[in-house]
Structures are given as C-alpha cells and as structure tokens.
Amino acid sequence: MKQLSSAQIRQMWLDFWKSKGHAVEPSANLVPVNDPTLLWINSGVATLKKYFDGSVIPENPRITNAQKSIRTNDIENVGKTARHHTMFEMLGNFSIGDYFRDEAIEWGFELLTSPEWFGFPKEKLYMTYYPDDTDSYNRWLALGVDPSHLIPLEDNFWEIGAGPSGPDTEIFFDRGEAFDPENIGIRLLEEDIENDRYIEIWNIVLSQFNADPEVPRSEYKELPNKNIDTGAGLERLAAIFQGAKTNFETDLFMPIIREVEKLSGKTYDPDGDNMSFKVIADHIRALSFAIGDGALPGNEGRGYVLRRLLRRAVMHGRRLGINESFLYKLVVPVGHIMESYYPEVLEKHEFIEKIVKREEETFARTIDAGSIHLDELLAELKEAGKSTLEGKDIFKLYDTYGFPVELTEELAEDQGFAIDHEGFKAAMKEQQERARASVVKGGSMGMQNETLAGITEASTFIYGADELTATLAVMIAENERVDSLSSDEALLVFDQTPFYAEMGGQVADHGAILDEAGQLVARVKDVQKAPNGQPLHTVEVLGELRTGTTYTLAIDTLRRHRVMKNHTATHLLHAALHQVIGEHATQAGSLNEQEFLRFDFTHFEAVTAEELRRIEEEVNAQIWAALPVVTVETDIETAKEMGAMALFGEKYGKEVRVVTIGDYSIELCGGTHVANTAEIGLFKILKEEGIGSGTRRIVAVTSREAFLAYREEEELLKAVAATIKAPQIKEVPNKVASLQEQLRELQRENAALKEKAAAAAAGDIFKDVKEANGLRYIASQVEVSDAGALRTFADNWKQKDYSDVLVLVAAIGEKVNVLVASKTKDVHAGNLIKELAPIVAGRGGGKPDMAMAGGSDAAAINKLLAEVGNQL
Question: How far apart are CA 131 and CA 185, in angstroms?
Fold first, then answer.
C-alpha cells in the first residue's frame, strides 16, 4: 500500500480525472448561493444541481472537484465514532449527459487499483449494487472482480423527491480481521451492519431516471441525458492510506490534536478516552472554514449551528482542563493543514480568530450565568422538598446555556438529586421535531427540460445598445418549438439582443419588439438565461411572430437607466462598507431594481447609526466627485492582477468584465452601469436590518427616489414642528427636549401622588390580617392602574411587621394581576403563586420573597383570595 498525504490524495484524484478530459471545478463556498433548500453545501454535487437538472449546460460535460462540505444533522455523534465529521471533503467526478455506467465503473476501478494511481490491492475491494442493476454487476465482473466481492443491496438506489435518480454502486475497502473482532466477515456488508472493517470509500450514482413520487420506481421514465454523480470521502481515504485506526489519526486532524495537547497538558491516546480531542479538532475545522466563507455565529439557522459547535468544543476543552479562550489559537494550525488547496483560511485567519475569540468570551459569561441558574434551580428544589432534577430543566440548561448534559447531571448528583433522563430525551426529541419541521423542504434537482436544453442557436447580448434589429432564431410556446405565433405568451431567442438577462442582482430589461412596419408585435416582460446561456425573452405576443424574420428590439431606456444608477451605487456601497466597517463585509446577495437597491453583506453585529451616516456620506462623496465608470473586458487572471473583487457566488468564465469607478472601486461584473457617478445624483439609506445570522441588509434609493425620501422626511418634520408649535424646523430638537423634561417632571409628580394614594389605601388593606397554620397573611383585591402599583404596596408592606405573607390581586383592564410577597422561609412566594394563579386562568412565578402572575378570569378573584389560607 502506498503512503499518501491528504494533499497528495486530493491532487491525485483531480489529476486522474483531468487526464480523462474532466474540467476541475473549484471548491464552492460553504454558504449556498441561490439555493434556499440547503443550509450548507453538503456534498460535491450540491453546487452542480443546475447542470444535472438541465437548467444550465456546462462548457465541459465532464467535471471533477474536491468540495468542502458541512453536515450537522447529528452533531452529538462527532467524537464518538471513527468517521463522523461536521466538515469533510467530498471528492467527485461527474458526467453531464456524456459518459455513463461503463466508463464510470472502468475508470473508477483504474484509479483505485492502477499502480500509477492509488494502487489498492484488488482483493481488498468489495462492491455493492442495486439488485435489479445487472448491468453494473456485469461491468464489475468484466473488469475481473471476484463475484464473491459483489454484494446486492436494496438500498443502493439514490433519489430525493422528484428529479434525477438512479441505482448506485458503492466501493468498500476491507481493513482485515483485526477490525472484525467477532469474525462476522462478509455478513457485515450483506446485512448492512455498522462496522470498522469494511469502509465505504466511494459511491457511484448512475443517474438515469426522472423520479416521480406518484408512480412506482419500476415506472420511472429514463432521463433524456443520463448523468454520473460520485462521491469519495477524503478523510476515509486518508485513514486507509495512512494506516490510521480512525480518521482522526490522519494528517488532517493530528496537527490540531497536537496543539490541543500543548494547551491542555493532556496526551491523546488513540485507544483511550479521546472524545474531547476529536470534538475540538473536528469543530474548529468546521468553524474556521464556515466563518471564512462568510457564516457567523448567531441564534438561528447556520449561525445557530456554528454557535452550538463552538460551545460544544469549548465545553470539551474544559473537560481537558482548558478554562480560558483557546479555540481561536487553533485557526492557524487548521489553515496550515489545508493551505495547499484552501489558502483562504490563512488569508482570513485574523478575522476568523477575532470572531471565534469573541464568541468564546461571550460563552464564558454564558457558562457563568448557567451555573448561577443551576445553583438557583437546585436550591429551589431543595426548599420545595423535591429530589429529582426534571428533564425540561436539564434541556433548558443544555439548549439555552450550552451546558453539556453530563455536566448538569454530575453537579446535580453531587448534591443528591436524581436525574430525569426520560424527560430530557423527550424534550430533546421535541426540539428535533421542531427543527425538522422548520427545514425548507426540497433539495432534489428539478426535472430536465429537453426543449430548453436543446436550444443551441447562438445569441449575443450587445452592451450599450438601446435598440437594434435582430433575427428571431427560436420561438417556444407551451414547451414546444413553433415557427409562428400571433397570441399568448412565448419564449424567444434572437441572434443578438439589447435586452439584459437577469443576472448578478440586476433585474432584466423590459421593452418592445416591433416588426418592419414599426408595429408592436410583442412586449418583453422578462429575460433569463437559457440552459446554454442565450438570453431567453419572455414575451406577451400581440401580433404575428415568425422565426427567421427580422425585428426591431427596443428596451425601456428609462427603466434601464434607473436600474443602472442603482447597480453602480451598489458597487459604491460595497466599497464604502469596506472603508467603514471592514474588509469582512462582503456581498452575500443583491437586487438592483428600478425603484431601489438591496444589498446583503456579512457582518457580525448591527451597523450603528454613526456608521450608516458615514457610509451614506462616503457613497454620496463619490457621486458628487463625478468619477468615471469604466468597463474593460479581459481574462480572469489579468482581472485578479488588477485587483478586481469577485462578487459572492458569481461564476466567471475565461473572459470577464472589470468595472472600475475612479480609484474607489474595482469589481468583476457582467451588468450595465452609468458612465459617470454624477448620473446617480443622490444616495440615501432607507433601512439596515439583520436577515439571518451573520448577514445584514441595507435597502437604499438613488436619484428621484432619494429626493422623494428626503422630501417625505422633511414633510414629517414640518408636521411635528406644527404640532409642538416650533416656529422653524431647526428648533424642533430643542422644543422636543423641553417637552420631554416637562413630561418627566409630570411623571415624577404623578408617581409621588400614586405613592401617597397607595400609602393611604394600604393603611386600610394592611389592617385586615388573617391567620392560617400559625402564619399571618393579608389577602386583598386592590384598585390600581398598573402592575407597578402592586409592587409599591409590597414595598410599603415590607417596611413594617404587618404580616408574614401578602397576596394582592388587581383587575387591570381585561387582565388579572397577582402579587405574592413573603417574609418567612416557611412560604416560598414563587411556589405559592404557582398554586394560586391557575384559579384566575393564569400562570407565573418568581423568587422566594416576591412573585407575580397574570391571569384572565376576573370572576374568580374572590375564589383565589379564599384559597390563600388553604395553601399556607
């Protein structure tokens, strides 16, 4: 067996498939682009779905990649198993309607067994296949695979809802009897038993059917273009080539584990209790890559996943005796491991370290808060005479404070409490069900559209043209090619067009199609890219259209110019964000409409009012500087040398357009722009908001819309000035401040009067003292305007020895407010109110000395007051 590093394995994979005519596709960002069905890029094929469903035709139908991926559906298993990871690398080779089963299997076998390549012993390889897929079985036989090494399995069929699907054949490596202590042998594969002997290293999916949930599998129709989709785990291959017991003893993880050894003073034992080392090594890899790709820790979505990973790693660090922030120190070691193929981790290490360290420090405070919460909870249980820590409370500590269950249990058991394990499991299951219900359904590929995929006629978009003559090359109505049409809706392709197809956040052009007589024959409502890249015009047909005929194509120039102003302003905004809040604020999506622009960007906190003011000033300064906007076409490498910034998620070809705005902004962009920033006129931010964990959004307007926005604000200020009788707008702030001070003074006077009234009323209430079980108590209904007045009563009550317990009830509006206060250890106010509140259809709680509740049944107030004595 060869000894190969992970970098050598990855490169050998790519080199082999490149030798078979495959284009090497770079690893995509972990944050999905234009795919709401995925939280993360979770496989090598996830970024290629547009090719498999036929919505885009690739330049080369043969593709290979090494794709960083994240899967977090069962984080708890990381560290417990030999091969479970949150972030991993999937090696893949793909055929989009080109080669199929024979070549995929033959070349796969060549890569695995040829001495020139991986050189695995043939007798160590086993293959599973779908029982009905006799073609794959026969192909393996033809390559010399022993029949005893071919295992039929019913599960070997890949499908996710409607769309491309098909049988798959998986390849396993036999690590030998040392990993089969019970000597079960081949039954481990035949019965699909989890084991460490036969390791799955590769899955070849033969995508040949359009899956249809409405019919049985045997009736699936064959795809017009059959595809090959494969995946091989780099971590598993590394473990085999490096003779590692688990994936963690490879060069992908051991350098991280060695750093953890230094930080903890503990030694990693491959045969001992090493779970904490594994969790930390795995999670910091995922965190480093995900943050580097623009995701940030937060309370929802992918942000919540990152926060959970970090907190889990921190707690395992504490189990190793590391009590200070340490994870951020592991970012650079991660970067060095992956540097040969993923240099971006080291390039962004300072920002990644900053985010990780800040999150660690925040969590340290959260842990302290969790400890206090647990201490208070256990004290309350003791006082109430309870001996079991309920599952819902354990789950709250786990979910809200990040407390590992075992830590909560250990601390509780030390104080003599039993643990409600089943209750915790039930709470955990309920949360998992909620999470599954909230996941966006989908993820499968769309059905292939043979009609659109079959459009091969050339079409060119002409930049700078408002109107031109063009020949109608293709016309599609009701998903069929037609030569003539005189009504309804159609899709059109011309040999050339001035209409911009929606792309890169810029909306499509609208406009008109005229015949030779200048008559309107169609109205263009939308333009999108066809699978082969041609501008595809969606039109409302108003007159006769014929293919092969020449027409005049005229865009709505006013609409185009308004969109261009917003598009150029978006570039200025992007550069201004870098200037004001940092280089990490990279684009995460945009929309340039004619009425407004919307810009999404990565940032870890809300942009302050002062920062927004500076950003707005920056953009307007560039507009008023009348900077020239220059576009040049060049190759991608030259563009990068020029310093052009590629936009998030965009795919660029060999030839690119570089848009330069003075010395202020330079970006790769295929859209249309104004010639000079002065054409934008004015820029105004309307709002800034969070739209997801680590992602912010700015909505802004330019030109006429910006003027109207300022005019609207001016009119509002004038209305305020009139209301408060300020002679001029500039006097409004001082006038408002004066009114606020007057209001505060009136509020102080009102509060003082309330206190006097409450004191007077309290004199009567506090005289009505009853007794039960040796305890003095006051239970009374009071007339107050708000719940705060009840606290005032309680404060007065505390000043003198009126009674041991006070219960006050007030009907305020449609609600019932209840207050319980206690001066004796024999009565826990929080527990008493839990017994009383349900009587008025309410609930509440609080501390031993003070508690409050809300209810809705005012008719039951007297019943509650009568019950107080029974509860003492």
Answer: 21
Residue 559: what are its φ and ψ, rounded to 5°?
-60, -50
Looking at the DSSP assignment, which residues form a beta bridge with residue 89?
Answer: 68
Instruction: Look up the pTM and report it.
Output: 0.71
Name the domain boundary from 681, 713, 745: 713
Q: Which of 222, 310, 283 is nearest to 77 (CA)?
A: 283
CA dist., res. 290 & res. 337, Å (int): 16
Rg (alpha carbons) of the chain, rounded to whole number: 34
427-to-315, 422, 434 alpha-carbon distances in Å: 21, 9, 11
CB-based contact 543:519 (threshold 8 Å)? yes
Tokens of residue 573, six digits: 């905004």
Per the structure block, which two tokens stand in for 137?
Answer: 């079985």
Task: Single out the residue of 617, 599, 612, 613 nearest to residue 667, CA to CA.
Answer: 599
Q: What local confidence, expressed as pLDDT, does residue 406 receive? A: 65
* Domain around 840: 764-871
- Residues 217, 337 within the same domain: no
Is 253 in contact with 247 (CB distance < 8 Å)?
yes
The 10s digit of each residue's pLDDT in 813-830 is 889 999 999 999 999 999
Can you tell me which residue has the tokens 């079980």? 773
Domain match, 564 and 502 both:
no
Which among 1, 78, 75 is positioned nearest to 39, based on CA atoms? 75
Kindly state whether residues 500 and 579 are assigned to the same domain: no
**516 part of a folded domain:** yes
309 and 418, same domain (yes or no): no
Pick the last residue of a domain from 376, 395, 430.
Answer: 376
- Is the model more confident about 815 or about 402? 815
Lowest pLDDT segment from 282-296, 349-363, 421-435, 466-480: 421-435
Residue with tokens 């700015």: 698
In whole angstroms, give the CA distance from residue 442 to residue 642: 41
Q: Is residue 854 part of a domain?
A: yes
- Rounded to whole angstroms, the Cα distance separating 491 from 547 reads 12
Residue 559 confidence (pLDDT) above 80: yes
Cross-strand bridge partners of residue 62: 95
Residue 439 confidence (pLDDT) above 50: no
Q: Are residues 680 and 583 in the same domain?
A: yes
CA–CA gap between residue 589 and residue 505 (Å, rounded): 7
Q: How far apart are CA 222 and CA 217, in angstroms?
A: 11
DSSP character string of 693-724: TTEEEEEEEEHHHHHHHHHHHHHHHHHHHHHT
List the CATH number of the domain containing 454: 2.40.30.130
- Residue of 535, 514, 561 lying closest to 462 (CA atoms): 535
**Is 267 a member of any domain?**
yes
442: pLDDT strictly greater than 70: no
217 shares a domain with 94: yes
Could you tell me the pLDDT band of residue 267, with boundaries at 50, 70 and 90?
very high
pLDDT tens digit sequence for 454-508: 898 999 999 999 999 999 999 999 989 999 999 899 999 999 999 999 998 999 9
The H or E element containing residue 94 is strand 87-96
Amino acid, res. 653: G
Q: How far apart (Å, rounded) are the C-alpha atoms in residues 842 and 605?
A: 37
739: in domain: no
What is the DSSP secondary structure assignment for residue 544, as one 8-state letter? -
Q: Are residues 217 and 71 in the same domain?
A: yes
253 vs 230: CA distance, rounded Å: 25
- Residue 527 to residue 588: CA distance in whole angstroms: 23
Phi and psi torsions of 492, nearest 5°: -125, 145
How many angstroms separate the most distant Cα atoms in the chain?
Answer: 105
Say if residue 276 is in the same domain as residue 332: yes
Binding residues for Zn(2+), as ranges, are 567, 571, 669, 673
Q: For residues 244 and 251, give the distance between their C-alpha atoms in angstroms, rounded to a whole number.
A: 10
3-state secondary structure of 314: helix
Give the residue numbers of the binding site.
567, 571, 669, 673
Q: Which amino acid is present at 113?
A: T
Q: What pLDDT is recorded for position 438?
A: 43
pLDDT in tens, 561-596: 999 999 999 999 999 999 999 988 888 889 999 999
